[in-house]
Write a structure and sequence with these properties.
52% of the residues lie in helices and 12% in strands. It is α/β, with parallel strands linked by helices. The protein folds into two domains: 118 residues, no CATH class; 221 residues, Rossmann fold. Strands 3-2-1-4-5-7-6 form a seven-stranded mixed β-sheet, sandwiched between helices. Helix 10 crosses helix 13 and helix 12 runs parallel beside helix 13. The longest helix has 35 residues. The protein is globular and about 60 Å long. The chain starts with 5 loop residues before the first helix and ends with a strand. Bound molecules: S-adenosylmethionine.
């Protein structure tokens, strides 16, 4: 069988969404399981995952125990059927699964993937080519595409709901409160959901946002405008205007980089971190997924630390967390949809 790589998985995601819309969940599950069976037949589950799964199964409540055991025994199809049955019957996702996921990608990530029938597709994926990553962002039409006003409003609303219990945001809020931070730059602001959320939460603070892509800068400006929050002039395109002309005095207290550092190669990241240091930024708050694909270099802490250290930053704190399972995301546990279950937040301080 032709090897399927991670970028193919995105096409599978699109197909699954289309199939879900046109033919309903049953057809979608059947297709997912069939593919999983095809792939799983020629694979073995790594020992670490097997051990972790069988250990977890001992503590899991009945519907999840069977799903986890089946995954541990190398049967994603059966595992998926048990997990799907549990979810469809309205059984809550077992909270222990969240705790396992929080224990990190080395133990928790494979567990989650093993519960996903398409885990076996992912597992064989090639790592991305780091040389292609920075350019990939600017040339990918799915990324450079703009959003309509309606999409922006809906996106910001969905983001806020999905992040209500997000441990990374809680940690950021603690940092802002305990260190009396007044000025925030959301670097790599995407479609402006985070900047809009920050403006809503902290009307008294100075909030700036920037992105490399003009379509995203425009989106963030419009998103803030539609929400009646913030100031469009505080959103700018990085690289287009010298920082010193834009940034306020006193300087930025914290730069937030939600899922951004992995878009850059080591050299690019180091130069950026040096700029933050030279601009007297006090803290960097980063979220990350330590997993690589063709547009993402997800560095583990041990890989990120030397890059940050060379640019004058020390790791103050970090933790893995599970992204909140919302009803809309439940099906990500079964269907081939992209989800980042082993997210990590990291707080960096000036060394
Ligand atoms: C995965 S998206 C995350 C967006 C947003 N922070 C979020 O959490 O939804 C990465 C964002 O970083 C931006 N980005 C990538 N490389 C960048 C760079 N070198 N400078 C500034 N922004 C960059 C991309 O354009 C994109 O909007």
């Amino acid at each position: 069988m032709t090897q399927i790589v991670k970028s193919d998985f995105r096409r599978l995601t699109r197909q699954a969404k289309k199939m879900l819309a046109e033919r309903g969940p049953a057809a979608c599950y059947v297709a997912a399981f069939r593919l999983a069976r095809l792939m799983a037949d020629s694979r073995t589950v790594p020992a670490e995952t097997t051990m972790a799964l069988l250990d977890a199964a001992e503590h899991a409540p009945a519907p999840w125990r069977r799903a986890i055991e089946a995954a541990g025994l190398g049967s994603p199809e059966e595992s998926g059927i048990f997990a799907a049955a549990a979810l469809l019957e309205g059984v809550e996702p077992w909270s222990g699964l969240g705790r396992l996921i929080q224990s990190g990608p080395d133990a928790g990530h494979p567990i989650w993937h093993a519960l996903n029938p398409l885990y076996h597709v992912w597992r064989d994926a090639w790592p991305g080519d780091p040389a292609k990553v920075p350019g990939a962002w600017a040339s990918n039409s799915a990324v450079t595409r703009g959003r309509s006003d309606q999409e922006l409003i809906e996106g910001a609303r969905k983001w806020a709901v999905e992040h209500e219990d997000c441990p990374a945001l809680h940690r950021l809020q603690t940092l802002i409160a305990h260190r009396s931070l007044k000025t925030i730059l959301d670097f790599g602001c995407g479609y402006g959901e985070m900047a809009t959320w920050l403006e809503g939460q902290y009307p008294g603070l100075d909030i700036f946002a920037c992105d490399a892509l003009p379509a995203r800068v425009d989106a963030t400006r419009r998103c803030l405008d539609l929400a009646g929050l913030g100031n469009a002039d505080d959103v700018y395109q990085c690289g287009a205007t010298p920082w010193r002309e834009i940034l306020p005095t006193p300087p930025i207290d914290v730069v937030t980089m939600f899922r951004v550092t992995g878009c850059m190669d080591d050299e690019h990241l180091r130069r950026l971190l040096e700029q933050f240091r030279d601009a007297d930024v006090r803290w960097i708050f980063e979220t990350n997924v330590p997993d690589s694909w063709d547009m993402w270099i997800g560095r583990k802490v041990a890989e990120a630390e030397p890059i940050f250290a060379r640019a004058g930053w020390a790791l103050a704190d970090h933790a893995f967390y599970a992204e909140t399972l919302t009803p809309a995301r439940l099906r990500d546990m079964i269907l081939p949809a992209k989800s980042w279950p082993a997210a990590e937040w990291r707080v960096w301080r000036r060394a």
